[in-house]
Design goal:
By secondary structure, the chain is mostly helical. The protein has helices at residues 2-17, 21-41, 44-62, 66-82. The longest helix has 21 residues, at 21-41. The protein is globular and about 40 Å long. The two termini are 17 Å apart.
């Protein structure tokens, strides 16, 4: 889906902009595998919230606020995990 491509591009390009090609390559492979899980088990409201968090992380990076960026990334990963509903049995 287009959302999957945009998510992959966002994360991979972010790693590239940070000068970490190894991380960019790892993210590309990892995101391909995670995309199916998030499409199946993440609610649309959690996906919108995730997008908002991406914007906040980019703002912190643009402001060169490393502590805030790290905190926001950690919170983002926790929110993504919490937003997955594995109890739902989707095909």
């Amino acid at each position: 889906t287009e959302r999957t491509h945009l998510l992959r591009d966002f994360h991979v390009h972010l790693a590239e902009l940070m000068g970490n090609q190894v991380l960019a390559e790892l993210l590309e492979a990892l995101i391909s595998r995670c995309a199916l899980i998030t499409l199946m088990y993440q609610s649309s409201s959690a996906a919108v919230h995730s997008s908002d968090e991406h914007a906040q992380i980019v703002q912190a990076l643009a402001a060169r606020d490393e502590d805030l960026a790290v905190r926001l990334m950690d919170e983002h990963l926790q929110h993504v995990q919490a937003g997955l509903d594995f109890a739902s049995h989707r095909p």
